Amino acid sequence: MSATVKSYAAVDLGASSGRVMVGRVGPDSLELSEAHRFPNRPVRVPEGLRWDVLGLYAGVLDGLRAAGQVDSVGIDSWAVDYGLLDADGALLGNPVHYRDSRTKGVAEKVWATVPAAELYAATGLQYAPFNTLYQLTAARSTAQLARARRLLLMPDLLTYWLTGEQGTELTNASTTQLIDPRTRDWAYGIAARLGIDLDLFAPLRHPGDPAGLLRGEVLEETGLAGPVPVTAVGSHDTASAVAAVPASGERFAYICTGTWSLAGLELDAPVLTEESRAANFTNELGLDGTVRYLRNIMGLWLLQECVRAWGEPDLGALLLEASRAPALRSVVDAGDAAFLAPGRMPERIAEACRVSGQPVPESPAEVTRCILDSLALAHRKAVQDAQRLAGHAVDVVHVVGGGTRNALLCQLTADACGLPVVSGPTEAAALGNVLVQARAHGLAGDLAGMRRLLVNTQPLTRYEPRGGTERWHAAQARLAGE
Asked: How much is the mean pLDDT over the chain?
């Protein structure tokens, strides 16, 4: 292997699975391969829904062993959730899952102290019941929080176990609703008013910062020869995925697809208007001073839950049948919190159609078509709203992440938006993770250079919009009750 080609392990943890990918990067080359994939199965215990973080850490170690010798390691994961450590640095119980019910009704208590409009103007974060701010408020009277001396977000917790060093990576910290997106520092005033001790958090790190070296015990268990540095990346998986959007210029929207759809724009400043808050857009921090201005949409979680309820039928056959089902016969609000919890998803979708006076989908193919039409419609609305609220027009929509495998969803998104869709890369979060590590070690260049490398090395598919958008406009009006 050429001395100018280096290898990087990207630990990429999603809500349903984790993977360790190996990226090999040279001045004009970028190759990604999967070393190890493992399930991420939350566990319901008497006190609620919890992450099996020890199982995840074991998967990370297995993945590093399978990866072989690398020049650096980086970790990204989903947002908002955290582990609490005691004064000795030991974990105080399994981290609570963001789908746990403990935050029900908590937001209203927070707003009684800091009104919702004021909270948005200070932090720029959309309302979601599971934001870390609400989780901490829900945990206020617990014995566990009383004992805690450190709070580490999920990727920072795993980094700590690998290196023994503690930090709070900024892109993920920006999802806590405790960061001011203008200063890119803690929202000290908000935290003080809500009685949240920011000393619980380790010092902020930025993508590209060193995060320590693999501990001797980790080297021994994985068979790696030290020293192996761990590098802070965009540790919120969406931050890494957006860094890997293969765009040229600034006139693009992105949709990071998977369990969630994150649809929006990359901006150089947050949008903190009341209109933006009412539209439920969030301002999360990205690489190089950028802001990820986006809306959270329920995403392929709806289909994943239905497939699980149907006994895991062949997805390819199901999507083919769905492509032949009548278009836009019934649609649901893909951002509705009613779909957040697991279980009985086909019945809940049918009920939503029934209540709204639309035909009730009955077969799996009809339900699937309803879901995909609804997601495309939500993508359309998010892209339209983001352009209007930010005053930022776009010419193309980039779809990255797991949803790129769903050609029907990509085509429907192009049709709904009336814009070309460029699909790929699928493993965007892992590629963004790898490229930030590579840049920190002297390869890959700036953000524009990273994206040029992606365009030149990754397979991409272009979908042109079919027909006009009038029927999508009508479906959007029907969903809004107009």
From this structure: 96
pLDDT in tens, 9-19: 999 998 889 99
pLDDT at 1: 43
Six token digits for residue 29: 């080359």
Positive/negative CA dihedral, 222, 171, 14, 105: positive
Q: Residue 282 to residues 193, 252, 439: CA-CA distances in angstroms?
A: 22, 17, 27
∠177-267-393 over CA atoms, to 5°?
Answer: 130
Q: How far is CA 196 from CA 97, 134, 257, 414, in A?
A: 20, 11, 33, 43
Catalytic residues: 237
C-alpha to C-alpha distance for 328 and 416, rounded to whole angstroms: 11
Is the distance from CB of 127 to CB of 116 less than 8 angstroms? yes
Of 266, 129, 267, 291, nearest to 283 by C-alpha is: 291
Task: Specify the residue for token string 């060093």.
Answer: 165
Half-sphere exposure in the Cβ direction for 143 (13 Å, CA): 2
Provide the pLDDT for residue 180. Answer: 98
pLDDT single digits (tens) 173-220? 999 999 999 999 999 999 999 999 999 999 999 999 999 999 999 999
Instruction: Tell whether omega for the bond before 227 is within 30 degrees of 0, i.e. cis.
Output: yes
Residue 405: CB atoms within 10 Å: 16
Three-state DSSP class for 234? coil
Does the N-terminal peptide bond of residue 425 adopt cis geometry, omega within 30 degrees of 0?
A: yes
Could you tell me the two tokens for 226?
């030290």
